[in-house]
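Side project, low priority. Logging it here so it doesn't get lost.
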Amino acid sequence: MGRFQGLFGIILILGLAYLFSNNKKKINFRLVFSGIGLQVIIALLVFKVPPVFRFFQLLGKAMGKLEQFAREGAAFVYAGIAVKPTPDTISDYAQSGFVFAFNVTAAIILVCALVAIFYHFGIMQRIVAVIAKAMNVVMRVSGAEALSNVASAFVGQIEAQVMIRPYLPYMTKSELLASMSGSLACIAGGILVVYSNMGLAAGMDLAPMLITASLMAAPGALVISKIVFPETEESQTMGVVKLDVKSHYVNVIDAISHGASDGFKIAMNVIAMIIGFIALIAFLDWGLLKIGHIFNPEFNLSLNYIFGKLFYPVAWAMGVPNGDVNSVATLLGQKLTVNEFIAFKHLTDKTIPVVSSKGLLIVSVAICGFANFSSVGMQIGGIGVLAPERRGDLAALGLKALFCGTLASYLSATIAGILI
């Protein structure tokens, strides 16, 4: 029963998508089943084929190395405050342990600089185009939505839309929703490195799970979005995958400086959100505690208590072992209503402990995505700048995209849980 408990989750997730579909008769079931099949193949390759799993473990070690390199820059900037200088290097950043703000800042800036270099030389565009062509053949989705969803597994929410900027004004509403959903279901490379290293700091090897989650999220988002909003219009890029995005950097130095600058902005935004949300949670928990004590002095009401109850059925249906259901449900609630950083912080520092390996896998995949309420606003604002004429459609589709992106992450997690 334990292995196949997740079947209830798949039925629940697809059932919710079908329930909220705006045109049930137009659902392309070939696309749905091919997309789920693609997710299953990705999960099987990673978790059942040892060489592939070892390759993903090596990628995880590479992420750890990236953070070590990032520490060198951080050590110079923060020496004497957060790190202890030594004769061997500029300063021994590792001796200070994991300092969230400094580690996050350093890792994101380095990865963004590397991505900018790859983008400048056309490497990123080629990788995205190759994978998008494969997805286009397997799932029969349009070129624009395939490109956007695959790009979202490597770069940020808005950067993925930049790659399809020429198509944005002419995309159908179904394509636009699929594109937004993919960006919410996936996670940027720089952030993925941060989560992986947060896990390593806590003795958790999350890298294979997180990389798999982001790869599975691309077809998963297309599956859910095409159930919720089936294609009824004529796409201008159906069957066509053409990516001709030129580098806007003058040279590699310009790419590095712009990438580092963009990484700093992202890192500062992350730090600001963490401070603001944690402070707000503390305020709300204080108020809820007082309300709970009105009814019962022993009743410590909190947001975590509420999340644990609301998301309990979802966590159980996804196949989480009974001992971890309440913790996973709480983390699912935090990720959706607050953000994934808070959920990962509480997972990796064991504030909300998940003890079973299966529970850890499912929750890691389920919360590895940008699907939260604040991200919806970021998408509407960011994509709206790229295509001002679509701002009304973006606003109308925002909550649908959040719904689809969340279900896509849950679908990936459920499938992964069944297969291990």
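Brief comment: Residues 278 and 342 are 8 Å apart (CA to CA).
Revisit when time allows.
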